[in-house]
Amino acid sequence: MVPWLAHDDPFPPVDRALSASSGAPGLLAASADLLPARLHDAYQQGIFPWYSDGQPVLWWSPDPRMVLKPAEFKLSDSLRKTLKRVARDPISEVRVDDDFAAVMRECADTPRLGQRGTWITSEIVEAYSTLHRAGQAHSIETWYEGQRVGGLYGVSFGRMFFGESMFAHKTDASKIALSALVGHLRRHKIEMIDCQQNTSHLASLGGREIPRREFVAHLKQAVREPQIPWRFDKSVLLDMLERHPPTPAP
């Protein structure tokens, strides 16, 4: 039985989440509200909300947990060429927090293969925008010819980043934003990005699953660290290019 959380109830321990043999592996609890304070507490414990309109707020902590370690980011030769072009092209930009809520809405509105509707409801946008105003959530945006063409958003506590969603209206636009994020996090020696659940797209970029206990152990230490700065531009892409030289010709 998944517990129902009243207004002031704490989250149960994450090891009480439903197992892989259940119909909803990783489901931990449900509630009627998505208050910013509860959202803050959730991320501190490795818990995140995921639900659709008409459902209660569903809280999850899957095991295993999908993560992307910046040191393990895979930069293909084609993406490396794209980053090199973006780095030298004056009409290509990477912006941080230009319009956080707009990025969330773009993530919600962008069609995805095999997916109907979106979990990024107006309630979700408002709750995460509150975190953004507190300096705890950020958007990384790809711009081309003065137009936002891709980006991602996530939550940041201490030396931990929790990726939430991304979108692209131009080829590789979301990958450019992710590459910039990875470059920034590597500059500040961030060891892990939470990706929540496994997808083939994330796996192709170096994401992998780790046991929840390993994830939570890292999280508990990382969120206690001082917050990193969140102002950067596309110059971080040069770090990625330096760390990923071209594949030698056969």
Automatic annotation (TrEMBL):
Enzyme class: transferase
Domain of life: Bacteria
Keyword Iron: no
Gene3D superfamilies (UniProt xref): Leucyl/phenylalanyl-tRNA-protein transferase, C-terminal domain (3.40.630.70), Leucyl/phenylalanyl-tRNA-protein transferase, N-terminal domain (3.30.70.3550)
Subcellular localization, as worded in the UniProt entry: Cytoplasm
Substrates-to-products reaction catalysed: N-terminal L-lysyl-[protein] + L-leucyl-tRNA(Leu) = N-terminal L-leucyl-L-lysyl-[protein] + tRNA(Leu) + H(+); L-phenylalanyl-tRNA(Phe) + an N-terminal L-alpha-aminoacyl-[protein] = an N-terminal L-phenylalanyl-L-alpha-aminoacyl-[protein] + tRNA(Phe); N-terminal L-arginyl-[protein] + L-leucyl-tRNA(Leu) = N-terminal L-leucyl-L-arginyl-[protein] + tRNA(Leu) + H(+)
One GO process term, biological-process aspect: protein catabolic process
EC number(s) given by UniProt: 2.3.2.6
Molecular function GO labels: leucyl-tRNA--protein transferase activity
Pfam families named among the record's database cross-references: Leu_Phe_trans
Keyword field: Acyltransferase, Cytoplasm, Transferase
Family: Belongs to the L/F-transferase family.
Function description: Functions in the N-end rule pathway of protein degradation where it conjugates Leu, Phe and, less efficiently, Met from aminoacyl-tRNAs to the N-termini of proteins containing an N-terminal arginine or lysine.
Protein name: Leucyl/phenylalanyl-tRNA--protein transferase
Origin species: Candidatus Burkholderia verschuerenii
Gene: aat
